[in-house]
Amino acid sequence: MEAFHYLFKYSVEFSIEEKSFKSARITINVEGNSVIIKYEDNSSLEYETIGKRAFEPFALSAFNKGASGIELMMAYNIVSIGLRGDLECLEREDGKPYFLIRVPLNKHTN
Prior knowledge:
Helix content: 25-40%
Number of helices: 3
CATH class: Alpha Beta
Order of helices and strands: HEEHHEE
CATH architecture: 2-Layer Sandwich
Structural class: alpha+beta
CATH superfamily: Histidine kinase-like ATPase, C-terminal domain
CATH topology: Heat Shock Protein 90
Radius of gyration: 14 Å
Number of strands: 4
């Protein structure tokens, strides 16, 4: 899924320490007629800072000089338009953001 390309790129650009190991965890479940994918990483960003505007164009460009700020917007568009799904930015217990992707198993179903 091309959306993961942009999520991985976001993870690399916003890791806690630039030279540290970058990690991401993906959990996949099927619920009813949907595939649910939870994507977590070791981002240095706080949900409070970016959560509500994570998918806005260039919203993240101010936080990292190497980031274009469109990675999450691209992932959102691929999931919502291309896959007829939903991508949300939610808050973990530690205050860090994570992403929840919900995609219908049957692309003709909403």
